[in-house]
Design brief:
343 residues; Rossmann fold; six-stranded parallel beta sheet; 13 helices; 41% helix; 17% strand
Length: 343
């Protein structure tokens, strides 16, 4: 069984992180893979060091005819059984003629299947995304559900002193791109209602300067740490008191699973992913999108109510172990690939 993965982006979002984690996990399971990607991708060196077979191509540049020709030649040379397109840009570069037995399009959100031309099977990260596929014309036998899994590194909690944060203060952590969809403005405004608490924002994006200005305007800049893109997410989670996901738009949110696996209480706004995954007041707390007062109240509860904290941690870890471990999800991918080849 030989898989050819196409990764056309070079960003540092959740989709890029998860797709790389899947390939690394499949590699450890002995799956024969070729990955077509940009040498500028954030985890290119990590994948190269791990021994994956990489083929570089300028897939993130606006030179589509050249990209399609390069992919056509690569596919002809590699002769994969399955082509796996991660996100719609990868699918858009797929040549019309090839000898692969099946082509997969991966959905990390509510995309239009029409933009995945050439893909025959579609994988969504939530049951609701799979329903969206079917509602938009995908045959039910070609729409599949495989969840994400968190990459939980075995690192101790980060040293708060290294992040200029007092040991005895409450710390709220966000793990996301600094993008309007992520609701980090709501988060900073909620923080302003919780005196003495600190915030760690782990991630990069176009709103960095704007969020810094907002933190100054809200009078919380001295309690906010902009950490940039981090690879020690679990270490940050273990050092924080609460993980917060204030997104306006979040199809799933692997950060939910990361918090559950790390044993960190979790608070989120009711975007699609958290609303479908988190059981309110059981394994997390949910509030309405853009509800500043509601978010601040939930953040306070998650630090002060010890019984609630214990319940959220225990129930979150139970949910993680049941359905979202790396081993369980990797088995699903392998079985899915094998089923396509047998069909």
């Amino acid at each position: 069984m030989k898989i050819l993965h196409i990764m056309a982006g070079k960003g540092q979002g959740g989709a890029e992180t998860y797709s790389t984690d899947v390939m690394l996990s499949l590699h450890k399971s002995g799956i024969d893979q070729t990955i077509v990607m940009s040498s500028e991708a954030p985890r290119y060196e990590e994948m190269k060091k791990a021994g994956l077979r990489l083929r570089t191509a300028p897939l993130a540049l606006p030179i589509r005819p050249l990209q399609k020709m390069l992919l056509k030649n690569l596919i002809a040379r590699e002769k994969p059984h399955i082509i796996h397109c991660w996100m719609r840009r990868a699918a858009s570069l797929l040549p019309t003629r090839h000898d692969a037995k099946a082509v997969i399009g991966w959905f990390g959100g509510y995309y239009d299947p029409k933009h995945f031309g050439g893909c025959e099977h579609f994988v969504g990260v939530t049951p609701d995304i799979v329903k969206h596929m079917r509602d938009n014309g995908v045959d039910q036998t070609h729409a599949h559900y495989i969840p994400t899994f968190p990459d939980i590194e075995t690192l101790p909690p980060v040293d708060r002193n290294a992040l200029a944060t007092p040991k005895d203060t409450k710390v709220f952590l966000t793990l996301s791109r600094l993008h309007p969809k992520k609701g980090l403005d709501t988060f900073l405004k909620a923080l302003a209602q919780i005196p003495d608490a600190y915030a760690w924002l782990a991630g990069d994006g176009p709103l960095r300067n704007e969020l810094e200005q907002l933190a100054k305007a809200e009078g919380v800049m001295d309690r906010v740490r902009f950490l940039g893109w981090r690879t020690d997410r679990a270490a940050l989670l273990r050092a924080a008191d609460v993980c917060v996901l204030p997104s306006r738009y979040e199809p799933f949110g692997t950060v939910i699973l990361e918090a559950w696996a790390a044993g960190t209480p979790f608070v989120a706004c009711k975007s699609a992913g958290p609303a479908a995954t988190v059981e309110d007041d059981v394994n997390g707390l949910l509030v309405e999108i853009d509800d500043i007062a509601g978010l601040a109240n939930a953040m306070r509860r998650a630090t002060r109510d010890e019984e609630l904290r214990r319940r959220m941690v225990a129930q979150g870890y139970t949910a993680y172990i049941k359905s979202f471990t790396r081993e369980a999800v990797t088995r699903q991918w392998i079985q899915f690939y094998q089923g396509l080849i047998r069909a």
